[in-house]
Amino acid sequence: MRIMTISIGKIEKITIFGEGPARTVKSAINKYPVSTLASPDPKYVGSMGLELDEQADLNVHGGADKAVYVYPAEHYPFWERLLAQQESELLPLRHGFFGENLTVEGFDEQQVFVGDLWTVGEVELMVEALREPCFKFNSKIGLDEAGPIMVRSARSGWYLSVLQPGILKAGDEILVTPGHRDISIADQNARLKIKRKL
């Protein structure tokens, strides 16, 4: 279990398509890799997230409880197959595409529980909650059903808080110390599926 890629993004104006006329909103969903297995540059993560990373709407990403967004590398083939069916020009997808800060290997939503402690070298992180996809994700994918598909397929990813700041880099191993293990990210995803009637 390790970090494959670290990505950050800047707030920028993006055009939202879908219901009604196109409109412009601010977002930092467009992340780009700054530490990869080929070039594992060290990056500082503080209590509010990765250095130089920005978030446009702290209700959905950012703040102490949503400082770092994580997405499994194992989910990428699912989305690439889906987008290939749509003959999407977005392919191939690069890590950071889903707006995640950490693209990780060896985890999925069934295995990750709220309250689990992640130790990466000197850094301590805690699993807080699943990611709830919004209209910005639909627009980026170019598919109105992208958010519902993310929920139905339980490929949401999750947020971490930062308990002990420090340095991270691609290739770092992740040590998991289980918490109470009452609620997994998959459990939260199942509840969201019912809530949104998906």
Question: How would you summarize this macromolecular structure in one to three sentences?
Answer:
This protein is an alpha+beta fold and 198 residues long.
Tell me what the structure shows.
With 198 residues, the protein is α+β, with helices and mostly antiparallel strands. It has a single domain (2-195), classed as M1 Pyruvate Kinase, Domain 3 (Beta Barrel), CATH 2.40.33. Helix content is 18%, strand content 31%. The chain has four helices and 13 strands. It has helices at 76-85, 135-141, 146-152, 185-195; strands at residues 2-8, 12-16, 23-27, 32-36, 43-46, 49-50, 68-72, 102-105, 117-120, 123-130, 158-164, 166-168, 175-177.
Regarding CATH, which class?
Answer: Mainly Beta
Compressed to H and E, one letter per element, the order equals EEEEEEEHEEEHHEEEH
Number of helices: 4
Mean model confidence by pLDDT: 93
- Strand arrangement, largest sheet? 4-1-8-7-11-10-9-13
CATH homologous group name: PK beta-barrel domain-like
- State which percent range the strand residues make up: 25-35%
Helix content: 10-25%
Shape estimate: globular
The structural class is alpha+beta
Q: Based on DSSP secondary structure assignment, what is the total number of beta strands?
A: 13
Distance between the termini: 31 Å
Task: Give the total of domains.
Answer: 1
Identify low-pLDDT runs.
Answer: none
CATH topology: M1 Pyruvate Kinase, Domain 3
CATH architecture annotation name: Beta Barrel
